[in-house]
Please model this.
Amino acid sequence: MRNKSGQLSDTITWIVATIIIVVILLIFIYASSLIAGVKEIERGSKVLIFGEGDKGDINWIDMKTSFAYAIDSQSKSDIDKWISENEKYNKK
Amino acid sequence: MEKLVSVYWFAILVLVAGGIFIMVYTFYHQPYDVRMVEARILSNNIADCVSQEGSLVVNLDSNLKKDFLTNCHLLLGDQDPEYYFEVNFYEFPNTINSVFEIIEGNKNYKADCEVQKKQGYENLPKCIEKRFYSVDNSGNQYLIKILSAVGKVKENAK
Model:
């Protein structure tokens, strides 16, 4: 009788261990599906100089405007205002 | 008993390996959306083609329109291109009516860009608008607006 109950507790231990492993795996699979998704590489890097002009980035196109101001900076404020009216598109 | 335990461990090993495979597959199966970067590169190349060091390097005439793609080394694709761009030149101070315009690529994308302004959709082309200022040899001030759009929905969106 004692031998039988020992076998039963062994079996239960293995079953519980298996269930725990399966549950943990399922949790990880679910988590990876949550963090997966279309990964948008939207901003260039500081190295590639395609940046939007954030801190430390060099904005290729803004540099052209700066060079042009070196030639003629009359009406700079009006021009800057026009440039800042840049149409923003949703990036979803 | 020992045989049974080794079979059990083997089964667990297969289960864990299968789980890891599913996790990696789920995570990396999704595509990378690089359309905004592509649109930005297109804008940069166009800007580089029309203005260098603040000076306008093109003559705004019909030849520019005709040979723009060749001169700027741009290949948009022959049939049903997946790119679109529009360059508008405004002679300062008139910022309403453009004095010159170049349009190339898939013209259907223009309407899609209008939709993207209001709400972003993954399955529509990605659009970007860039504006800058340039001065020509005669000292005329030009404001230049570049709208570029990249389709390639199949490759970049799910």
Q: What stands out?
A: Chain B has five helices and seven strands. Residues 2-28 of chain B form the longest helix (27 residues).
